[in-house]
Amino acid sequence: MIKRIARTQLFYSVAEKIVPILTITTILLPVWMSPVHPAIASYFILGYLIYFLYKSIKTVYFAAISFNLLKKAGKIHWLKKLEKEKSHRDYYHYIIITNYKESVSKMDETLKYIKEQHYPKDRISIILAMEEREGQPAKERSAILSKKYAADFREFDTTYHRLIPGEIVGKASNETYAAKFIDRLITKNNLDRKKVLITVCDADSLLPSDYLSYLTLEYIHDKKRLFHFYWAPVLLYNNFWKLSLPIRVQSILSSVVRISILPQRENLIHVSTYSTNMWLLNEVGFWDPDIIPEDWHIWLQAFFKFGKEVRTLPIYLPISADAVYTDGFWKTYKNRYEQERRWAWGVSDIPYAIVRFFDTPHIDPIIKIRKILFLVEHHLFWPSSFFILTLSAYIPPLINPMFKRTVMGFLLPKLSSFILTASSLMLVFILYFDHKMREKVKVKTELKKLPMLFIQWYFLPVITFFFGSLPALDAHIRILFGKKIEYKVTEKD
């Protein structure tokens, strides 16, 4: 009975609106609660601020752990270690590079890094996953790159994905088309799906030279390898000094946060560029072709089939990628806003998870609840953080003048300021980790640019509003009112 109800469109629509409603309720709580229960509103605000301080300290703590592990991993000769394994030549790598209207120069740089992998080239195959709707430019790009690189790899193929009914424009449908093509090649060549590793690589992701060796060794030693994804932190440093101030600040924060989540295995879910095996992809039916945020979604697909066995394991080598950058000032900001909104569209994974909760009795309900709560926390904090952290402490005394005369009314703005100041001290550590990680991917800091690296943080509240909370709130409101977004490839050249 419950399963049947959970599969209805009405149930999905209700589940879809839960977090957007919670988001708006959270943002407006200081406003609607202050006239009647200002003390409750104040305790809520203080609780939120303390939680933010906790998250800030936690980010720095795990970033420090991760940084040390990255430093150690960078000193290891991974191919030499791998070659000690008798079975190391039994494994094959297929790298799917999804691309749409990318420049030849950008793709060329990505392929150059793959060519420089410290790994046998007769075990590496490249699939350029293109979109048929791009037309002749895609074919020309494929021809140029094939001519230059085909001889360097075991196989070098191009797929042209055609949109069919039931699919939407996006990485997921393109990746599924490319993966099914690879699956046919595997069958034709009598390869074992369990020994074929698939890496989904963005067109601007530069894989470190030891990535495939490290990945293969990790996979061989992993006893539950069939159920796992593997992820190296994708740092937005390729075009760091070309970026305008707001985009650069966000690229720093995003990169350090990605480093910090690596050691947190319970909640580690991959983004952007990641690896897994063909057997797992085949078992879950590849990527659902009708969704936009595909990286967390494919993890959830696997989780709701195999339960607690599914995890993402860290690869402690940094991948360098591009942040948003175009030739126009306002165009860059528009693209960055749309990119953040697209990422925040991941809130649509929550109704999917709620529905799957009821049709997967073989999975421990406690584990499922924990995963759903993790998703809710992530997508609730994202759009609400700016409003609660920067504005809410002044609302109860403003709306309820009587409350201003109480001890709590007097202390609330001061306590809020103190907690935010304590949180902002974490920026010192973030700056340090950012500097060190940029050194690892060979992005130098000139002495004359140092002052700007410090001055830019004064604009953080404005930046987090326009390129963090606002686009996330936009995504939530669109879902609440049934308005969809279209997948747009972010310009980075």
Automatic annotation (TrEMBL):
Superkingdom, taxonomy of origin: Bacteria
Q: Where is the Glycosyltransferase 2-like domain?
A: 197-431
Q: List keywords of the entry alphabetically.
A: Membrane, Transmembrane, Transmembrane helix
The record's listing under Pfam families reads: Glyco_trans_2_3 (PF13632)
Which residues are listed as membrane-spanning? 12-33, 45-70, 372-395, 415-433, 454-473
Q: What's the protein here called?
A: Glycosyltransferase 2-like domain-containing protein
